[in-house]
Design brief:
It is built from two helices and ten strands, in the order αββββββββββα. The chain is mostly beta strands.
């Protein structure tokens, strides 16, 4: 037997193992999630690189601030990623390709491709991941 839980008592996003009665799930599907991303807590990704995240069910957005000279070391993940430079100048390496991106430029990073980045000057990015980076959501919940 499952007890009913009020919508405002549920954490968002709902953990996969949580059993919630169907009428509540339907109401949650219709619920609009909002945040002021710039007011979210910050999490260090790499030295000199902080992130603020906002996950949905299938997609996640992340605001990233980089100090001049900060480096996101080479890494890969199974998530497709889009990075948009809001301010500054960054050197991206994706696979064997290297390119400098400036304010307003965007890049798609395919799944499972090794990539890195270096801030030439202080930068701000918006990054989008699909599906949600559960590893980062878990780290973020512990900040």
């Amino acid at each position: 037997m499952h007890s009913l839980v009020a919508i405002d008592q549920l954490s968002s996003p709902i953990e996969r193992d949580t059993v919630v009665p169907l009428p509540i799930l339907q109401r949650i599907e219709e619920h609009m999630q909002t945040t002021h991303l710039f007011d979210e807590k910050k999490m260090e990704l790499f030295p000199g690189i902080d992130a603020q995240i906002f996950p949905g069910k299938q997609i996640m957005v992340m605001r990233v601030s980089l100090e001049q000279g900060a480096i996101a070391t080479a890494h890969d993940h199974s998530h497709e990623q889009i990075s948009i430079v809001l301010q500054g100048e960054m050197e991206f390496t994706i696979g064997e390709e290297q390119k400098t991106l400036k304010t307003g430029d965007a890049v798609v990073i395919p799944s499972d491709v090794t990539h890195s980045a270096k801030a030439i000057v202080k930068c701000e990015l918006i990054e989008v991941f699909s599906p949600v980076r559960e590893d980062l959501v878990k780290r973020y919940s512990n900040v």
